[in-house]
Amino acid sequence: MVEKIVEVRELRGNRIELIIKGFNVAYVNAIRRLILSDVPTMAVDFAYFYENSTDVYDEMIAHRLGLLVLKSDEALSKYASPEACADSQPPNPKCFVEMFLDIGLEESAPTGFYVKASEFKISDPSISPVYPDTPITYIAPGQRLHVVAYARLGRGREHAKWSPASISVLRYTPIVSYDASKATKGCLECVKAYGEVLEALRKGGSGFIELYGLVNTGGLRYCAETSCKNAINIRYDPSILQLIVEGTGALKPERIVYEATKVLEDKVKTLKGMISWLGVKRVEKNRAH
What we know:
By secondary structure, the protein is of the alpha+beta class. The protein contains seven helices and eleven strands. The strands form three sheets. It has a five-stranded antiparallel beta sheet with strand order 1-2-11-9-10. A four-stranded antiparallel beta sheet has the order 3-8-4-6, with helices on one face. A hairpin with a 2-residue loop joins β1 and β2. The longest helix is centred in the C-terminal third of the chain and has 36 residues, at 253-288.
């Protein structure tokens, strides 16, 4: 039996990079897709304007509010799921968080200012803009903006504003075999953009290098087929998978991956239940005949 290993190669900021061994490619790719489409986050879905005398239309401001990235780690356990809230309307506190803003300037004000995401009053202190300096609109002297918005949990397959990740990549691990004795000056010049490979060829000898991260190997393949023939060769190992996720900040990157595995587990349980139900129905039908 193949040993299953998951190694965290990098966890920094909103980025996580996993090395996954012993898992089926289809399984890990399902997680990659669910990260983008099914892991829920909070985002504004309703915006009611009571006054807007700024130079930006209501629809444009509503669009900007919808794209605000909101911290959602605690929201996943505090608010009902998107499916449970499908028929709900604000201000249902089980489904919605209220965001309130009423701000303006007198005509006599010397200058205007930009309204930022941080100026909204939010009913739940655990929900806040990840990027508080995000500009919403500009208010000039004599202008006012009064808006009440409501955020809820949603999934990326409904709208990209609910997707917790901007990048979710699965790739086979590129493995470069090299023989420095056959590397010419032209070869060294060709691979100079690939530091690890260049360093290995300069040191001499032969061996293998595993390349990790979002490394574009198109140029390396070109070198292997032209000026580095016989000096380097590149192949892709499907038994060593790299899952690279860059979150928006709504959820911690490790939480994104964890929630994706939970979603996949729930989908499998649902499918298993439906298959069992169909089996029971088929037996009942056969007995009836």
